[in-house]
């Protein structure tokens, strides 16, 4: 019996140094859809026993859901303030870690948006313009800020249709429910959208910065898989993928 107990103690001590297979569920802002899918695939090749499941949606809605006990282990927010608020409220097992700056663009599936500006949206031939819902989607909020800064919000408000998140907004434009819209640069750079037309990069001085950040949630305290994935976001492979999708990364801002 004593030998058995000693073996259990030894396993507990020495087993901590071995990467144990596990699972982590990630709540990620919808602008990360294409980049995150690639990053998860790369992570999987290096950690084949780990399982990462990603749910994409609105940062504001995830913020509310986590406060209500939603079973997410990591939260990647398009607006770092949502992550910071969860830290302050005691819902996080880590600090809010900045991971990128996002950008917004004009994009259309049937017009050459690269030849447009925000003022082009006042064209009478444009009847529907898609943006993410500013009430809970950071990209939608920045779109509203840019339209107000250009002094055309009041002219366009009646034309606007709102996506639940930035990916839903892009779908409105892809399907023709909107002729043009404001989406994330990270989505416009995906080959599926890029093949349908160019984009117009909206000047960043027209809106507040889209500083993005993530947390490990309180639920995931001690979840080794969640920590491994959090660490992996700073790997060369992950950073290369994020850069390819138009994100400006911490440490690259002054280069």
What do you see in this structure?
- The chain has helices at residues 2-15, 33-46, 59-67, 80-88, 138-149, 153-156, 166-174, 185-188, 191-194, 224-232, 236-244, and strands spanning 23-29, 51-57, 74-77, 97-102, 104-107, 129-132, 160-163, 180-184, 199-201, 210-216.
- The protein has 255 residues and is of the alpha/beta class.
- The protein folds into 2 domains: 15-102 and 209-244, D-Maltodextrin-Binding Protein, domain 2; 104-201, 3-Layer(aba) Sandwich (D-Maltodextrin-Binding Protein, domain 2), CATH 3.40.190.10.
- A 5-stranded mixed sheet has the order 2-1-3-10-4, sandwiched between helices. A 5-stranded mixed sheet has the order 7-6-8-5-9.
- The longest helix is centred in the N-terminal third of the chain and has 14 residues, at 2-15.
- It is globular, with a radius of gyration of 21 Å.
- Residues 1-19 have low confidence and may be disordered.
